[in-house]
Amino acid sequence: MALAGTAHYAPYVASKWAVRGLTQTAALELGRDRIRVNTILPGVIATPFIQEPAAGASTAIADFYSPEPFAVPRLGEPADVSGLLLFLASSDASFVTGAEYVIDGGLTLGPALQADAA
Fold it and tell me: What is the pLDDT of residues 9-55, one digit of tens each?
C-alpha cells in the first residue's frame, strides 16, 4: 500500500507513504555519517500472519490474494525478503542509500499476461 492508494485504508496508506519520504530524508541526513537508509516494500509474503486467520476471524489474509495475476505467480517466501536484507546489510551495498526495493512478485505492476497469451 506504499505504491498506490487503497480505498478504506487511508491511515495505513498514509503511514506507508510517509515511510518512503522519511527514508529519503534520513538517507540525505545520515549519508555523511556513513549510515545508509533504504526501504523494502514487500508484497504478500507467506507467513503465519498472512496464512492463518487472525483471532476472531474466519478467513486468512492470503485467501483474498490469488497470485495468479502476479508476474511471478506465487506468494513471496520469507527467504525472498531475507536475501535482500542480507544484501543491503553487506558491504556489496555500500553505495546504496535512499533506495526503494519492491519485492512483491510484480503485484503492483498490474496483471501479467497468461503464459499461453505471452
Answer: 899 889 999 999 999 999 999 999 999 999 999 988 999 888 888 88
What are the residue ranges of helices labelled H in the chain? Answer: 10-30, 48-51, 78-89
Cell numbers representing residue 54 in the block: 487472525
Cα–Cα distance for residue pair 2/73, rounded to 1 Å: 21
Which one is catalytic: 9, 12, 65, 101?
Answer: 12
CA distance 95 to 116: 41
The SS3 assignment for 99 reads coil
Contact 60, 52 (CB under 8 A): yes
**Catalytic: 101?**
no
